[in-house]
């Protein structure tokens, strides 16, 4: 769903020749319904995959999707549109893997990132959709923050300050008018700071008694839109209860691997965090991909510094907002659900 948008296009690109999943239907708004997918204005690099060119874009309606007899649905719909249709699909017995914010903060819906909180998938057992369920992935900026924080959690994370420099693709295909953003920085992105604050604490919280107890640290986020195309750069400062040197923090992040790597999931990167050593890295234009094996699923970290005798660790991170922050994250979640036997 939402297959013609930026995230939808990344889904189509990443699902081409996927070892588990085959795309059989694509939906969008009434504006695109009835057109061949080949007429989509393709903005995510490369060519429209052949498997999608011949598919007709359909309306995002329950009956349309059920007619395809699908096993699962990926959603790249705008938040406001996603709420009802995702719930209706789950109620109709389908697993829904969603990028939209609509259900992320529902008590019974996990915001899953299997490197960070794989056990949160069990929260779907508390949903009352019957056979179906909803699993979300986080907001794009949050995906970088939680991956970088995850290996630091055992050092008693107390406060997190995040300042973002977010690319225009984060606002969708028609998101930011060029007259607003060229030669400019806009120090406001609607609802983004709240999402970083709430989603990070939920994702790094503990699941027990069928609910998630959010992590106890405080998060203060400040978000800005900058005139880059892809890749959100984020400055992160973490206050720790157990001090650590910058060198050790860097090494812990460098060594970090988790469940998707052990399971060899197809979309899992070899290293969730790639620590760059250059004094002026990571940079959106240079570091979104570090080479042919880097599909955009690794978060780049650089300039790791310590202050206050190691009580504060500061660093920059760079996350590919439409891949690790969106479509790639949802596909990894579905792969993990399959590995866990939650979907066949
Ligand atoms: N961009 C990112 O970096 C990013 C990262 C993480 C999460 N997300 C989330 O992912 C979702 C998609 O974002 P995006 O950036 O891909 O947005 P987008 O480029 O604006 O694409 C939106 C998609 O939804 C469809 N759509 C719009 N209104 C609709 C309606 N009334 N009924 C059915 N379909 C409708 C559009 O179809 P038409 O082409 O026909 O208009 C298009 O396929 C959003 O919830 C967003 O918050 C985005």
Structure description:
With 344 residues, the chain is an alpha/beta fold. It is 28% helix and 20% strand. It has helices spanning 6-15, 50-53, 62-66, 79-91, 114-117, 140-149, 178-181, 192-203, 246-255, 259-262, 284-287, 323-339, and strands at residues 26-28, 57-59, 73-75, 95-98, 133-136, 157-166, 206-208, 211-213, 218-225, 232-240, 273-275, 299-307, 312-319. It has a six-stranded mixed beta sheet. Strands 3-4-5 form a three-stranded parallel beta sheet, sandwiched between helices. Strands 1-2 form a two-stranded parallel sheet. β12 and β13 (312-319) form a beta hairpin. α1 (6-15) packs across α12 (323-339). The radius of gyration is 19 Å and the shape is globular. It starts with 5 loop residues before the first helix and ends in a 5-residue tail after the last helix. The mean pLDDT is 97. Residues 2-8, 28-29, 31-32, 60, 76-79, 81, 99-101, 140, 169-170, 172-173, 321-322, 325-326 line the site of NADP nicotinamide-adenine-dinucleotide phosphate. NADP nicotinamide-adenine-dinucleotide phosphate binds next to α1, α4 and α12.
């Amino acid at each position: 769903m939402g297959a013609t948008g930026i995230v939808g296009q990344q889904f189509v690109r990443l699902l081409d020749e996927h070892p588990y999943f085959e795309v059989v239907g694509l939906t969008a708004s009434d504006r695109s319904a009835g057109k061949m997918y080949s007429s989509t204005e393709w903005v995510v690099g490369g060519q429209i995959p052949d498997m999608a060119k011949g598919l007709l874009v359909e309306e995002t309606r329950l009956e349309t999707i059920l007619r395809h007899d699908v096993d699962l649905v990926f959603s790249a719909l705008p938040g406001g549109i996603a709420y009802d249709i995702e719930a209706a699909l789950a109620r109709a017995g389908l697993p829904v893997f969603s990028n939209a914010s609509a259900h992320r903060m529902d008590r019974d819906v996990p915001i899953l990132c299997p490197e960070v909180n794989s056990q949160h998938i069990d929260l779907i057992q508390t949903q009352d959709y019957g056979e179906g369920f909803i699993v979300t992935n986080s907001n794009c900026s949050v995906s970088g923050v939680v991956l970088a924080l995850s290996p630091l959690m055992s050092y008693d994370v107390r406060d997190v300050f995040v300042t973002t420099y977010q690319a225009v693709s984060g606002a969708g295909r028609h998101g930011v008018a060029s007259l607003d953003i060229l030669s400019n920085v806009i120090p406001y992105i609607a609802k983004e700071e709240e999402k970083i604050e709430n989603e990070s604490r939920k994702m790094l919280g503990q699941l027990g008694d069928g609910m998630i107890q959010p992590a106890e640290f405080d998060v203060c986020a400040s978000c800005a839109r900058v005139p880059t195309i892809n890749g959100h750069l984020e400055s992160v400062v973490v206050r720790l209860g157990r001090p650590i040197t910058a060198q050790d923090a860097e090494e812990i992040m460098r060594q970090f691997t988790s469940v998707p790597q052990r399971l060899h999931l197809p979309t899992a990167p070899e290293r969730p965090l790639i620590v760059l050593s250059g004094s002026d890295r990571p940079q959106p234009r240079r570091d979104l991909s570090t080479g042919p094996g880097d599909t955009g699923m690794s978060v780049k970290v650089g300039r790791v510094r310590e202050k206050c005798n190691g009580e504060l660790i500061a660093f920059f991170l760079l996350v590919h907002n439409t891949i690790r922050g969106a479509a790639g994250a949802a596909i990894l979640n579905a792969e993990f659900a399959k590995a866990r036997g939650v979907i066949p």
